[in-house]
Amino acid sequence: LIEYINFNEEFRFIFRSFDQNINQELYWSLKGPKGMEQNNHAIKWKASEPDYVFYTVLLTDQIDTTEFNGMLYVNDIPKIISTPPQYIKLGDTLNHIIVVEDINKKSAFNIQEQNDHIYYLETSPEEMVLQKNELTWIPKPEDIGPHQIKVTATDGLSSAEQTFTLYVNDQPKIISGNELKIQPGDTLHHFIQAQDANPLASLAYGINSDINTMTLNGKTGEIFWAPKETDVGTHQIKVSVSDGFDLSKDVQTINILVYKNPQFDFEALPEAYAGNEYSYILKAHNMFLKTIPE
After folding, report:
1. Which of 39, 94, 103, 272 registers the highest number of CB atoms within 10 A of its CB?
2. Dmax over Cα atoms in the chain, in whole Å?
3. CB contact at 8 A, 258 and 233
């Protein structure tokens, strides 16, 4: 006969005896684990050792002796200690290992077997699979959004539960062009456009640029810049969009050409006379002051 008790709980038991001899004095004694106490025919013990514990209670009238051999199974209630994921990016595969803490080494039902746990998936999205203690799932576009998940682990005596919300997130993607042109003196107004399948996603925009006079509205994604003559040439900046989830952002490199139209190298054409052949070579230069044609 096995009695079950939880780890760190107190075990108490009162023995009853019978002796046909009238007024016979009886003597009790105990052999048990460390910390088990006996007071006459009562024993108590704080369960400080896991697994199987054995004890013997002896009763004697100093002529005959009888003994009772008892067995306890001290069960450590399993605890799920693994941290569940909070979100998964659409296109990724969920592989989550459920880790259980349990100091029991032996099975509560067979002293020859090792302690083991059974796992159940109580609540989950469709097609999520629990094999042994591993959750596996490949979310689809229609799964975007929050999902409630509940898993249970049991050793056959006690159970541990874990409930969490898993959010399937669609990473935003920048879809606006990345080749821009502007002339000195004009003002650049460029909106970073992004797609995100999450209907409630709040997008935030960022910029990495060496141009001190360029600004970005982090909420609308609009870039402002008024280049000057000294800015003529090619510039490169990096912009990003995020929906607030870790590592869930898209980055785009934008090339900006600040240009000036070619200019002629004369203010007016020379005079021409009637009856005479006219010949004049036109000359011009580009924004880099190079002759056109070279």
Report:
1. 94
2. 161
3. yes
CA 155 and chain centroid, separation: 27
Distance of CA 48 to the CA centre of its chain: 36
Structure tokens at 223: 């870039």
**Could you read off the pLDDT of 79-131 as tens digits, one per residue?**
999 999 998 988 899 999 999 999 999 999 999 999 999 999 999 999 999 99
Contacts 24+ apart (CB under 8 A), 162-167: 162/80, 162/84, 162/98, 163/123, 164/84, 164/86, 165/86, 166/84, 166/85, 166/86, 166/87, 166/88, 166/94, 167/86, 167/87, 167/88, 167/245
This prediction's pTM: 0.69
How far is residue 187's CA from residue 164's CA, in Å, rounded to a whole number?
49
Instruction: Compute and round to an integer the Cα radius of gyration of the chain.
Output: 41
Q: Using CA atoms, how far apart are residues 229 and 183, in angstroms rounded to an integer?
A: 9
Contacts of 247 (CB under 8 A, 6+ apart): 89
User: Using an 8 Å Cβ cutoff, are 176 and 191 in contact?
Assistant: yes
Q: 3-state SS of 235-285?
A: EEEEEEEECCCCCCEEEEEEEEEECCCCEECCCCCCCCCCCCCCCCCCCEE
